[in-house]
Write a structure and sequence with these properties.
Blueprint: H1 2-35, H2 39-55, H3 59-64, H4 68-73, H5 76-90, E1 96-100, E2 104-109, E3 118-132, E4 135-148, E5 151-156, H6 161-169
Antiparallel strand pairs: 1-3, 2-3, 3-4, 4-5
Organism: Paenibacillus polysaccharolyticus
Protein name: DUF4878 domain-containing protein
């Protein structure tokens, strides 16, 4: 009789301990999410800041908001010269209208082909409407915002061309 009571008490205690450990684990996993509630807003603000610089022709400041992978792809001087040359000289535009969709949170996303996927990113579809020498046209671009350290940085989307071409041809 005594052994049965001890066994039941032991099961109750281990069940309570297991419940408390599970509860603590859930709390610990949830706390960071509370502090990241502003993440979509912060990411969208960086994208908006990037494109506001682009609107005013301040390509050097917009380049500063790029992720290091983008900075590697486009050296600053080449980026500034090419953006100004293409949009202002070739297309004859001074600025553009901007429309951004709300950010969508994605996980394990491959933004640039051949680069390790990012564990978390915010995808934003950006539409720039230009009026210039060749009339009015829209440039629609998918960009992603990821954290580099504690700062949000911008990447343009470079999908796997082979995968993209087979999706569109079927």
């Amino acid at each position: 009789m005594i052994r049965r009571r001890n066994r039941n008490a032991l099961f109750k205690k281990s069940g309570l301990i297991l419940f408390v450990v599970l509860l603590l684990w859930l709390i610990i996993r949830s706390v960071p999410a509370l502090f990241r509630a502003d993440a979509p807003t912060e990411a969208a603000a960086v994208a908006e800041e990037f494109y506001k610089y682009e609107q005013t022709g301040d390509f050097g400041s917009s380049w500063e908001l790029f992720h290091p992978l983008m900075k590697e792809r486009f050296p600053k001087s080449a980026y500034v010269q090419n953006r100004a040359h293409i949009f202002m000289q070739h297309f004859g535009v001074q600025t553009f209208e901007l429309e951004m969709e709300p950010p969508e949170r994605e996980f394990d996303v491959e933004i640039i082909q051949g680069v390790k996927p990012f564990s978390e990113a915010y995808k934003i579809k950006v539409t720039q409407t230009y009026s210039g020498t060749f009339g009015k046209f829209d440039l629609v671009q998918i960009c992603y915002l990821v954290q580099d350290g504690k700062q949000w940085t911008l990447l343009w989307y470079y999908p796997d061309e082979r995968k993209h071409n087979t999706e569109t041809s079927s």
